[in-house]
Amino acid sequence: MAMRSIQRLSINEGTPLLRDQMPATLQMAVRPPTSPIYSPDESDVTIRASDHPRSTPSTRRVRILLPPPREHVGLPDEPHYPCQPEEEESRRWWSMAAGWAGFACFFPIKLCVYASRASRTRWTSLVTSHSSTRLSTDMTSIILTGATGTAGSAVLTNALASPAIAHVTVLARRAPAVTSDKLTTIILPSDECPRGFDEIPPALVERLRGNDAVVWALGISQTQVGKEEFHKITYDYTVAAANAFKSLGTADKPFRFVFMSGMGTTQAEPRMFTPLFAIEKGAAERELRAMETDTFKTVLVRPGGILPAADHASNVPRISRWGGAVASVVWPSSVITSSDLADACLRLATGKGWDARTPEHVIENVGLKKLAADYHASMAL
């Protein structure tokens, strides 16, 4: 077939090509159709001359550079005037110049902000250091018994981590598993103390001088030993230690004895159905209360069910753990975590919270929980 030439379509540079401005004989197929008016870049356009009166159908492919689509396609009749290359280059340079100008203006401000933060951080560290120095003069050294039990182990853990406790001296039959520069362990019985807790010799008392308080957490379940052994551990050991520690205090700085008793203990005369632990703990409470002087102060804490820490839960009978879990839901005031109990005892050991004592020198479980909360608040300051 004879090929006839097609009249060239003349488009001025920078002028948009609209479909309605094309001759009726031209059909455009623009790929891809991203705009109802314009093609986004240089696209293939097929021009057919089939409507020419003297031509046979033929096809030629030309390439037309169309302007980019308008951003606001909602106004199709609005004319679009794309930027000239020189104008686009000028705009790009102006944008870069504005960016560098902004950087030059705000960099000194940002530098001043960083310097201010650094200065404030240094000042805060100086204040903290000064506060720590002031606190170190008020730090407490304590004696601890029962450090391998549920309550005593929590007291030991929290005491070693507390900035308010300077040193811990443990009196025990076996050494605890933890070690620390703040910890000293004295094994009883030993060559120095052949009778163990039955008698605290004067040499050991002198070795313990300088301590401010004792947390007496030594104890055992009445189901694990006989009645006589339970009386010895609960009453005899406690009274013997109290008599020995009375000489460690002064009128200006009395020694503090924190005795771990238990909920249900009574200082009244026992009745027919009073359990053994309540009788023995009550007898120890009465004796300690009677021993208080200006140089020797006693407080008797009565925790409820003790919820052990995770690392000590295996040492607690399963039925006790289940009972504690149920009580924590149906009767939460009757239980306390070992950590909270430890914090309450440490607060008392440091001389705080003694106004919570009753006339019988007792602090019940609810009061211990409040002391623990106060201790947490004081450590957060």
From TrEMBL:
Matches recorded under InterPro entries: NAD(P)-bd_dom (IPR016040), NAD(P)-bd_dom_sf (IPR036291)
Pfam families for the chain: NAD_binding_10
Domain of life (superkingdom): Eukaryota
Domain spans labelled NAD(P)-binding: 146-348
Region feature (Disordered): 31-59
Protein name: NAD(P)-binding domain-containing protein
Protein's organism: Cutaneotrichosporon spelunceum
Lineage, broadest ranks: Eukaryota, Fungi, Dikarya, Basidiomycota, Agaricomycotina
